[in-house]
Amino acid sequence: MIAKKDLEHMGWLARLELSEEDKEKYTPRLNSVLDYFGELDEVDTEDVEPTYHILPMNNVFRDDEVNVPAKPLTQEEALSNAPKKQDGFFKAPRMM
Amino acid sequence: MYENPDGVMIGLEVHVQLNKLKTKVFCGCTTDYHNDPPNSHVCPVCLGLPGALPVINKRAVEAAIKVGLALNCKVEEHTQFYRKNYYYPDLPKGFQITQYDFPISSGGYITIEGEDGEHRVGITRAHMEEDPGRLVHEGTIDKSKYTLIDYNRSGMALLEVVSDPDMRSPKEARRYLDKLRNILEYLDVFDGNLEGALRVDANISIMGGQRAEIKNISSHKGAERALLYEIVRQKNVLRRGGVVVLETRHFDEAREITMSMRSKEEAHDYRYFPEPDLVPLKISGWAPAIKATLPDLPDAWRLLFVEQYGITDEQAKALTSDIRLAKFYQMVVQNRDIKFAQLAADWMSNVLKGELNYRSQTFKVFSEQEAPKCWACGEKMVPSDRYLFDWNGILINDLDTFKKLKEYLMNNYGAFWVNNAPIEKDDAGRTIKISVENYSISLILDDTKNKVIVKFYKGGTYSLSLKKVNDRLNICEDIFYCNNCGASRDKNTTFIIKVEKPSVPEAEISLIDMLKALDFFENNKISEDDVLKIMRTILQKQIPKEFDVEKVDKIVKEEGLKKVEGNIVEAAALEAINENPQAVADYKAGKEKALNSLVGAVMKKTKGGADARTAREVLLGKLG
Amino acid sequence: MATINELKERIHAGSSEEIVAEYLERIGSSKLNAFITVAKENALVRAKEIDSEGFEGSLAGIPVAIKDNISTKGILTTCASKILTGYVPPYDAHVIERLKEAGAVIIGKTNMDEFAMGTSTETSFYGPTRNPWDTDRVPGGSSGGSAAAVAGGEVPIALGSDTGGSVRCPASFCGVVGLKPTYGVISRYGLISYANSLEQIGPFATTVRDVAALFDVIAGYDPRDSTSVDKEVNYSSALKNDVSGLKIGVPEEYFGEGTDENVEKAVWNAIHTLEDLGATRIKVKMPHTKYALSAYYIIAMSEASSNLARFDGMRYGLRTEDSDWHTTFSQVRAAGFGDEVKRRILLGTYALSAGYHDKYYLKALKVRTLIKQDFELAFKDADVLIAPTMPYPAFKLGEKIDDPLSLYLADVDTVPINLAGVPSISVPCGFSHGLPIGMQVIGKHFDETTILRTAYTFEENTDFHTREPEGL
Q1: Which of C222, C229, C282 is nearest to C251 (CA)?
Q2: What percent of chain B has pLDDT over 70?
Q3: Could you tell me which of B420, B522, B496, B414 has the C-alpha nearest to residue B458?
Q4: Which of B462, B465, B600, C457 has the fewest CB atoms nearer than 10 Å to its CB?
Q5: Average pLDDT over residues B567-587
Q6: Which chain C residues have a beta carbon less than 8 Å from that of B95?
Q7: CA torsion B122→B125→B129→B132, rounded to 10°?
Q8: Which phi and psi angles does B160 have, rounded to 5°?
Q9: Neighbours of chain B (3+ CB pairs under 8 A)
Q10: C1-221+240-472 homologous superfamily
């Protein structure tokens, strides 16, 4: 079961500010879902390997060639969606 | 036996940029961004735009394996990239693609010169990951009102080399870093001179306290300073009865202190999981193939220099401490005879290196040129791919092909012992070995790169090019050749060494400069002090940057260094008189000015080495 | 409702510009809220170009709508989220490049559940899309805008994406055809990830033929997607009115408890129709189906919690007032994401976190292996599997939105397909009180041709696909 404290920790890890109201609202809903997920405990998965990739592919590479396969962006394109920018840089908040 | 009185334990996490690759690790953006505006070498992938996907650069994996092998690690055959989930303003996706439980290599070591002689530092692991962007703060990180982000660096291939906590002093830490950097440069995967090429996080503890992790160290000197500061700090805390806590500290390079990064930061939980957008790597078989073509490392070069050139171990160590210096030295010797080796070593390991260190100058090798100027005569060299022999001819024991191979080895490397040596084939026809007694040469086929590596028994490697023509494997030379004077040079070694200091414009010292200076000295034409003066002038003054065969001659002339003996002027004067009967006649007829042209002729013959007044006096004496 | 071939005739007789203008008008007067962005100017300019250049490409001049989680250069792309406010991508997704090469005209970006997280298109920041068959009902989701636009005659063909049923569910609810291809057949380059190990882009149309035509254009290898598969197939040429000898597996786990009686009946009727046409039916057992839902949601939420980490307001999208970076990031994300997205990020973070990783994430991936094996076993005997797409027809707007779990349960028949990575096509197979019912034909990995042929044969011998919603 997720307690309010756990929710706060998840909120911190996921950088999601949660209001008191959010926490009240989310806790029972998340718990009912987690409760449901608990059904997987019934499944015997001993000696079962996890499937991370559904297709049995490996060794997919690109050659060390410039601008292949994805094309580069110009500085203007790169910055075109920046909410804040300065002198060709993206502008982020202060560190501390 | 080193006592380690404070129980200092240092472990380093070194982030190495594989900056010799052409492109970043998961996209095709160039790695050549250092002189360009921010955010001008980015694409949807390295900028983390929604919907963009990574694709692994094959050469980055090869380079990582190369490093792993050189650090005596075990190379993983099955591996996979993971996501490390955390937030930071330099991280465009909110996670970093890295490796987790199967790092590409682990369990190796580096040998350094320790406090008590040779000391082994364990390598826990070396794993691949992507570099985040670069943050710029106005003023210091704690005071800056905002942060600027440049993603040109984002997505550079990084290798995080994690050591065991085996270093017992800041000095050992610095030596470890020097050695690591040197090995990486010999492997040709890394250029340590580029900004941001190598960054260090240091873990340090002393007896009785917990460890501190120091971040933001960007130089070897910085690492030593940060660790020295930290030992003093931790000792002070303990002395006053305090507790050294487990924490992350930030190194302020300008003030040479470490600061606690105390914030509301809780324990990290990186929530690693396999990157769904990248499929697993199954690379068994890669390591043996890469191992076969691994270039010689500094220790091998050192032994080679000692054995082959008869110089001291101390000198060899100094010369091989930087691959550029080692190659420079090797070329100087190869262009004279073996007797020159000692002289060159004296000057290069000691004087040249000392002068560079004194000025905090570093070598920067001129990048390979399309058509370099000849180091001997200054004419343009041309690439040569002269046909040598057919690899398959060796495999079928064709005697004519044997002869061609042997002639090549004798004529080009002076390996006359091959004449009567047997030729063996190995590794399913991929290696040819010629050996007799203690001598041996191996030729190794590397068809992924269309190259043949020629390895000598004492170390030293050269490369030939491979051209597939129908069922033939034509082996050709792969050099630059001067049609004017017949000089040649290896394509993979560059011969002009630039010397630069970040704040000072570049200076250049070339092979021909070095040879001329030493020639002058050896022929007793200039003194020891004069050689030093030449070197200093080249390193200090802004000599015109373009290649100049006459550079040293000019310095000698301008500084008046050359001792030209009287008999040379005498001889030149005699020749001048004999060759210019008209001028002599004119002078004798009373035309004073005709003497000037004779003086000019003498000057020309002595290449400006003679003093004009002396020349005039000698001429007057002879003309009576 | 016009098919591609009918439109081609009209374009050749008249112009693409005319056709595009006609569709734009229909979109303009629509009450469905199927579009977030209508690319009116772009579309008309492009149509004119195609008219003047001659009609190069298999979709020359044909309007197409794109789900708003697919990157379109120069056209707003929002994922129906406030957090991507104002985001105009500087690059095209692989499928968009392909569509442009084929001459298609991008007419707009369709509504969806925020970041494709939903089954009803109700979680969109831009308001819900309505079902053309009953505007009080949901169109299904998450590609509800694309399905509703096609069903409502606002566009002839459209693209959606299917992570756990997001193409097939709305196709079923809106009475159109929708295909979820084998994982790896269509490049995901430019598809804004929700759960990358599960999702594929998929085509919508009113007929199987048109779905195949659109699929032919967008399928194929792309070196920018490491999971992209190099297989060249002409899907349209596989459309034959013939199922003789076809072995249809019917997994009983997909029928029964929770499944609407009319849905069950309609799907069985469809199976019998195919039997009458020469197919044979066999029973297959897929014992782990029951656990697919939990496994799916754990994997999807875990991946989503990481995929959505990049939305921090630094490089694009919403930005709130600056303070220190931790606070700014947290506030941007709190202000930008809707409730359902936040819940999934929190649960995904939880499922991957220290102490719970093995219990949830790893366990789910092991269950995924068992589900994959269920399919492998079923396909030893069967050529295709047939099952209901959704357990019931479209429900009312607001009916389930306050109870996430009951909404998740609606995906019970679609998510196993994504876990196994196999292809599945949903085609209309009946009606219940005037609402369309869809059945899905599920195939082996890379065997799209067989499911297309099955769906095509069914369509050729029935008339469900010809019915149109009234009163629009």
Answers
A1: C282
A2: 91
A3: B414
A4: B600
A5: 84
A6: 306, 309
A7: -40
A8: -95, 110
A9: A, C
A10: Amidase signature (AS) domain (3.90.1300.10)
pLDDT of residue B366: 59
Give the minimum alpha-carbon distance from C56 to chain B in angstroms, rounded to a whole number: 28
Residue type, C327: T
Interface B–C counts its CB contacts (< 8 A) at 105
Whether residue C166 lies in the annotated active site: yes
* Interior angle at CA C328, CA C326 and CA C331, nearest 5: 110
Average pLDDT over chain A, rounded to an integer: 95
Tell me which chain C residues have a C-beta less than 8 angstroms from the C-beta of B93.
309-310
CA angle B134, B139, B142 (to 5 degrees): 85
pLDDT in tens, B98-133: 999 999 999 999 999 999 999 999 999 999 999 999
Structural Rg of chain A based on CA atoms: 23
Question: 3-class DSSP state for residue C423?
Answer: coil
What is the SS3 string spanning B261-318?
Answer: CCCCCCCCCCCCEECCCCCCEECCCHHHHHHHCCCCCHHHHHHHHHHHHCCCHHHHHH
Handedness of CA B171, B176, B177, B181 (dihedral sign): positive
Query: Which residue matches tokens 């009116």?
Result: C40
Instruction: Say which range, B197-201, B366-370, C96-100, has the weakest mean pLDDT.
Output: B366-370
Q: Which ipTM was obtained for this model?
A: 0.98
Amino acid in the structure at residue C237: S
Question: C294 and A36: CB-CB below 8 Å?
Answer: yes
Residues in chain A closer than 8 A to C363 (CB atoms): 40-41, 43, 45
Say if residues C1 and C208 touch (Cβ distance below 8 Å): no
pLDDT digits 0-9 by tens, B227-258: 999 999 999 999 999 999 898 899 988 889 99
B566-623 maps to which CATH number?
Answer: 1.10.10
Q: Rounded to an integer, what distance in angstroms lies between the CA atom of residue C278 and that of residue C276?
A: 5
Mutation pick from C78, C91, C331 vs chain B, by most beta carbons of B within 10 Å, is C91
Closest CA to B513 of B488, B490, B489, B547: B547
Crossing angle of the two packed helices C339-352 and A20-37, in degrees rounded to 10:
60
- Tens of pLDDT, residue by residue over B357-392, are 777 777 666 555 566 777 777 788 888 888 999 999
pLDDT tens-digit series, residues B545-569: 556 667 788 888 777 776 555 567 7
Chain A 31-90, CB below 8 Å of chain C: which residues?
A: 32-34, 36-37, 39-43, 45, 48-55, 57, 60, 62, 68-71, 73, 77-78, 80-84, 90
Q: How far apart are CA B61 and CA B80, in angstroms?
A: 11
Record: contact C364-A33, CB cut-off 8 A: no
Contacts of residue A74 in chain B, CB cutoff 8 Å? 40
How far separated are the first and last CA of chain C, in Å rounded? 12
Active site residue C142: yes
